[in-house]
Specification:
Layout lengths: L2 E7 L13 E2 L2 E2 H10 L6 E6 L2 H10 L3 E3 L7 H11 L5 E4 L9 H9 L8 E7 L3 H4 L6 E4 L5 E5 L14 H4 L3 E10 H7 L6 H6 L3 H6 L5 E4 L10 H11 L2
Parallel strand pairs: 1-4, 1-6, 4-5, 7-11
Antiparallel strand pairs: 2-3, 6-10, 7-10, 8-9, 8-10
Length: about 250
């Protein structure tokens, strides 16, 4: 199956405007994401999807490939769908977050492996939670899985609730998972889910993947041991520069 990696990138950001162009140890963030994605053995092609001429100028500077998209998309998924309608010949689309400059290509390959099964239409990654800080952080979406490693539900709350256990003991009594925000879709499924209207669960939690579950789609997962570091604020930038250093 031919796989296309798409990196949605927009200039506007409430907490960090222009972050695709920020310098991270000598390279722009969008260049770092693009280079990491291109290193994934499972992807046949990688394209940056953007509506901003400043980002396009940077992509041209480092020799990347881009697709110009409309400015009114509500999500990266919608932006990927527009690209999928214009770039033909790909069976699977991988939506790679544009704010994770050091995403490991191994994670992309792991996600792509989900589509070795013809039954899989949607996929994402999850990671085990080991600390109370992550467990009770409402900015980190949690996910509950079934026996087939399919997602049952996503929430910003800590799920599942441990009825007969004190909160300080939850981390020891159950294996919790957090969601890693990289998605894969068959092209056909991607075009279908972007035609769905926002659902009550999605609006309640502000998590678009709940729209897909609420409409009967299955989301296959793979468990990764690798951590991802996203940049949402200037403080995140300072942290990642300290950690990586090059």
């Amino acid at each position: 199956m031919a796989k296309l990696g798409i990196i949605p990138a927009r200039y506007a950001s409430t907490r960090f405007p222009g972050k695709p162009l920020i310098d991270i140890n000598g390279k722009s963030m969008i260049q770092r994401v693009y280079e990491q994605a291109c290193s994934a053995a499972s992807l046949d092609r990688v394209v940056i999807a953007t509506d901003d001429e400043r980002i396009i100028a940077e992509i041209k500077r480092f020799g990347g490939e881009y697709a110009l998209t409309r400015p009114d998309h509500q999500s990266g998924t919608d932006r990927c769908a527009e690209v999928a309608t214009s770039i033909k010949g790909f069976d699977v689309i991988i939506n790679i977050q544009g704010d994770e400059p050091y995403i490991d290509p191994v994670q992309i390959d792991l996600l792509c492996s989900c589509f070795e099964s013809p039954e899989v239409k949607l996929a994402t990654l999850v990671k085990k939670i080991y600390t109370e800080e992550e467990l009770f952080n409402q900015n980190i979406p949690k996910v509950v899985l079934n026996a087939n490693l399919e997602a049952i539900y996503f929430s910003r709350q800590t799920i599942p609730f441990q009825r007969n256990t004190a909160p300080q003991d939850w981390i020891k009594s159950f294996q919790f998972y957090k969601h890693i925000g990289i998605y894969g879709y068959t092209t056909e499924t991607l075009l279908k889910i972007t035609r769905l209207k926002p659902s009550p669960l999605e609006l309640a939690e502000s998590l678009e993947q709940l729209r897909w579950l609420e409409n009967g789609y299955k989301i296959q997962t793979r468990v990764t041991d690798l951590e991802t570091i996203a940049i949402d604020t200037p403080e995140d930038l300072e942290k990642i520069i300290r950690i990586k250093g090059n």
